[in-house]
Amino acid sequence: MLITESKINVRYAETDQMGVVYHANYLVWCEIGRTELIEALGFRYADMEKSGILSPVTNINLSYKAPAKYGEKVTVRTWIEDYTGIRVTYGYEIINEEGRQCVAGYSEHVCVKNETFRPINIKKQFPDWHEAYEKHKK
């Protein structure tokens, strides 16, 4: 199983009046982690989109454990939690610089045709992606 680690400096604009990261910003950080994981596998979302395929989020679940704060550095750990050939579930863990888990969760995605939003079979459409996901899933 491949786990990537993305380092993020918590910026002031990402926090609320208490200096704590606003909850929606964790979603952006998960997207950064997911993109870096895909690149570590040797692929790019942009190339998939150029071929007319999108990968929308169908479900997301994050559990908030401890606050990340302005001025800290956090690490977003990302992996392939599950893969069915049609649906991909990415796992996430966001840890602050003290090693405390701030967030744990997952997001589910399906690949769809841009024009119709009908799901595609990743194994048939992107056999290289399929092979990598099979190899590196949990």
TrEMBL record:
One family name in Pfam for this protein: 4HBT_2
Annotated Gene3D superfamilies: Hotdog Thioesterase
InterPro entries (UniProt xref): 4-hydroxybenzoyl-CoA_TE, HotDog_dom_sf, YbgC/YbaW
Keywords: Hydrolase
Molecular functions per Gene Ontology: fatty acyl-CoA hydrolase activity
Family membership: Belongs to the 4-hydroxybenzoyl-CoA thioesterase family.
Protein name, entry field: Acyl-CoA thioesterase
Lineage of the species this protein comes from: Bacteria, Bacillati, Bacillota, Bacilli, Bacillales
